């Protein structure tokens, strides 16, 4: 007990220490800051104060601004206040949870937290628990939790699935949700909402804090986090860090615009222009939009400029963790001249030496662009420089629009999910797996969340029936087994196999099956999607993680490779990652188009595009503010009709589907649909009678939702959404680790399921959710309506062109397509066969 | 609705359900029904609509009533997995069947033969009749024409304007024909036809020979 040093013996026996007041506590923090030669920012002090006054809240602060200390410090101070004898007596048990969306960020947070906790001798311990944490450590943690646990939304749910979880959390004093903006518009955010609703009951002292970058709907973000109208919400604050960063945007414009391609997504033409930028800067980050683009850029820079070997690195989510951590450390240590990266470097991690950012290809959203720009000049007050490198000519218009966006700091909203029944089914099963639950306790908790505030008694009843009976009515010979209702009314999973399968599947991110890539002699390189490997044969060479690898064999979900000296042009690509323009971005883009069409002053980017505009004007027009352009032409492929709303990919997807559906009502026809951020295409093997489209007034906002709903039945969109829902709600089992069911099987299973539900149970809430999600999140119905109303006010200009125009080119060459048909299947088969004869 | 073909001077009718009728033998061939799959999923906590169980039985009844065969031969994978209560529906269905029922065992058929025999279903690893060999797995044996299943064959067909379709099919060459999966809750495996193949796709209520 006498650890205070030699003087203790001479002193009177120490009584209990006095409880410190807020000022005394804050003094500890300020002293520590001075000892580091730092000065706390006003937002940090505000947060300390608010936390110590037992408030909940949302802190709006960018990465690299000291946000970890804004919240970790008052958590420690609060512990000191409650445990004045903290130096001699450590109170055991979990006190705080820090939720981070990315495992990669946890180490950084752990280091920062440990630094303060140890320096002031608080005696508090910090631990990490994520999917990477070894079983041994996890078991040890269960016995003895660290004081601060850094974890992910999924791992938190897993804790709720273990027996006696309420004891683990009973002394929880704080929970911090980091990067809340990243979680908000996703089902992982819903998972967090549900976990919080439970913790509010079992951890009565818990204070809830979120940390978010700047988004359009910060106030709503706070409401979603804390629960609408909840006690926590009433007693909460929104604190904004006012750190003004100056951002300079500069486009890389090719010297010879004439040879710059009309389409493409790699941007290789401008490789040489990038080199002087890298040379003149301490460290440069090159952001690409996809992992394959990242691989290709890395490879090509080294091929052409081998002198960068050793100074150039690559960072994306599929490379193994050790390599990623090494790269991150090397950036901090100023060992690297440049890093080619994807969004895996968007978040967290603070890199002071980075001076310059190059964005390759359109970032698609203002918030993302600003966040990336913010990665450079990480010290407050320093100017951030970001270069924009267009991958095809039309992207220069985006560059011009982005310049304005940065000036006006127009950022997007993150739209929270509502009524995600799949996540609720998973959550209730989780509770049934651990200690079981009584619906009368859980229902009010669930209803208190933002996501389920509109949940009706009937829907709740439906969900309970679903998890216990697998249907709404009992049927003959049914053996459905999942959650059982015990005699006292408790909902419980008693079957161990079901419990184990459920634990394995907790989560809401449904990805393609990934295979680990390993050397024949051992050594893990990273992960790769199954569908890419399925196209290769043993002996084929491909490039991954910057290395040329020869495929040796695929076994047990592992891709075994050997190093190869052969050159390769095969780069793995990873599905997904197609993003849409935000509403803000689309509006800026339209404005730029009008500038381009008009005679007013033009930016350098628009000037560089003048030859393309000239060509466009020759073949067709550049639509002005009051014009809606439609182009039609015929190629070897068939009859094309291109529409240009300039509303972003997702809205175009909806409009394409809507219009195709309406036209298909006139006579049996089959369309293949393509869309990009500028417009969309209806392609058919029969000519489209455009005059009929106008005469029947098919471009109208009337009956919009009704028609769209019907058109959805004819496309594949809802089917794809249903896949995620089926996995999250546990209808499709994704398999055991390392023995995963191949995605192909999972896919076809959920596809089969979709058809079965459509034919036998179309009123199933989970089935209907697929359509609702398609509307709300994929097609952005609100934006669609506004766009249709805007178009109704415009004059339609229909150009029957000789050949594809510069505007049309990037759209018609897009291979990712939807289908819509009103023809009978047998007629389609026969017509396709007839076409073969004519070929 | 159907398509007639002749092999070794015997006449066969391809039905849009995926069943094949052998006229001279008055025999109906059906492959890969995968009964019990829906119940299997439900037993393991996946809430596939229970009413879907009836789909396969309705389809079976329809095709049997159409041909009224004296023999029904299932070319394997009649049941998807171990015994579950869907067996009771099968028993009920068998009650109304007057034809002789035979099962050529497939890899999924793990239910005890005694259960089948009790219902009057005869089991064989393979059947040889005239110049024809009936198996579950596709096989090439000289001198015989082989009818089989197992693969769940499907084909992709492409048309102008970037159109494409994937459809289940009867997949034939000069020595064998693979039947499509008859079961409702089954997937298909896409095959790539070569010169020697004849492909009959199932398109709604028609069977169409691809040319």
Structure description:
- The complex is a heterodimer of chains A (839) and B (211).
- Chain A is built from 33 helices and 28 strands.
- In chain A, strands 3-4-2-5-6-1-7 form a seven-stranded parallel β-sheet, sandwiched between helices.
- In chain A, strand 25 and strand 26 form a beta hairpin.
- Chain A has five domains: 17-240, Rossmann fold; 246-408, P-loop containing nucleotide triphosphate hydrolases (Rossmann fold); 421-505, Arc Repressor Mutant, subunit A; 514-540 and 547-563, no CATH class; 620-838, no CATH class.
- Chain A has 839 residues and is of the alpha/beta class.
- In chain A, helix 1 packs across helix 3, helix 2 runs parallel beside helix 3 (67-82) and helix 16 crosses helix 22.
- Chain B is α/β, with parallel strands linked by helices.
- Chain B has a single domain (2-209), classed as Purple Acid Phosphatase, chain A, domain 2, CATH 3.60.21.
- Chain B has helices spanning 37-43, 53-67, 86-95, 113-118, and strands at residues 2-7, 10-15, 20-22, 27-30, 71-74, 100-104, 122-124, 127-129, 132-134, 145-148, 153-159, 163-172, 176-178, 189-191, 198-203, 206-209.
- In chain B, strand 3 (20-22) and strand 4 (27-30) form a beta hairpin.
- The chains are: A alpha/beta (839), B alpha/beta (211).
- Chains A and B meet through helix 20, strand 23, helix 29 and helix 33 of A and helix 1, helix 3, strand 11 and strand 12 of B.
- Chain A: This is ATP-dependent helicase Lhr and Lhr-like helicase.
- Chain A: One of its GO terms (biological process) is DNA repair.
- Chain A: Residues 270-429 form the Helicase C-terminal domain.
